[in-house]
Design goal:
With 183 residues, the protein is an alpha+beta fold. The protein is built from seven helices and five strands, in the order βββββααααααα.
């Protein structure tokens, strides 16, 4: 039921109520208020950061190292099926990064990001090398960060966060998720 109370326009939809106070859209659910716009903006930033970094990393591997070079690097980690895993890594980073950036099939792409990054962290943990300097990123601020296992763990956590939260409103997936929720 819709009604006007003061400056707030309230619309009830079951147990959930959407209140528009000025420019901030807020959702009231079980008495808890949250700013929907800022949450969706935060999810967009997470998705863009993870997607763009993944896409750039995949493109860098494809153009700078090449698929064969990536496979050779993975083979140096003493991983079985290194040739196939190296090629899959390059294409997964490019396709997954593009999907995350667009917000298309976000949860699937984020799950792949979490799996890929977790696996990379596990493989790099044993080596103890500075991965960023091995791949030509010789900027001093990156070398100060130390072992890139931290980066891989961070990417894995970003991926898991997006798996659990979904893409947010600013994504290609958003209309599909709204339709599913209405059922």
């Amino acid at each position: 039921m819709a009604g006007v109370s003061g400056t707030a326009f309230e619309q009830e939809a079951g147990a959930e109520r959407v209140v528009n106070r000025g420019s901030a859209l807020t959702r009231c659910q079980s008495g808890v208020m949250r700013n929907v716009f800022s949450i969706d903006l935060g999810l967009l930033l997470l998705r863009l950061a993870a997607g763009i970094l993944l896409l750039v990393g995949g493109l860098r591997k494809a153009t700078w190292l090449g698929v064969d070079g990536s496979s050779e690097y993975v083979a140096g980690l003493a991983v079985p099926f290194a040739e196939h895993l190296g090629a899959a890594m390059v294409f997964t980073e490019i396709i997954g990064g593009a999907l995350l950036t667009l917000g298309l099939m976000t949860r699937v792409a984020a799950a792949v990001l979490a799996l890929l990054s977790g696996m990379a962290a596990f493989l790099l943990l044993d080596r103890g090398t500075v991965f960023v300097s091995v791949h030509g990123w010789n900027e001093p601020f990156l070398l100060l960060l130390g072992n890139p296992v931290e980066f891989m763990v961070l990417y894995a956590v970003l991926g898991l966060a997006l798996v659990f939260t979904g893409p947010g409103a600013f994504s290609v997936d958003a209309p599909a998720w709204r339709a599913i929720r209405r059922r």
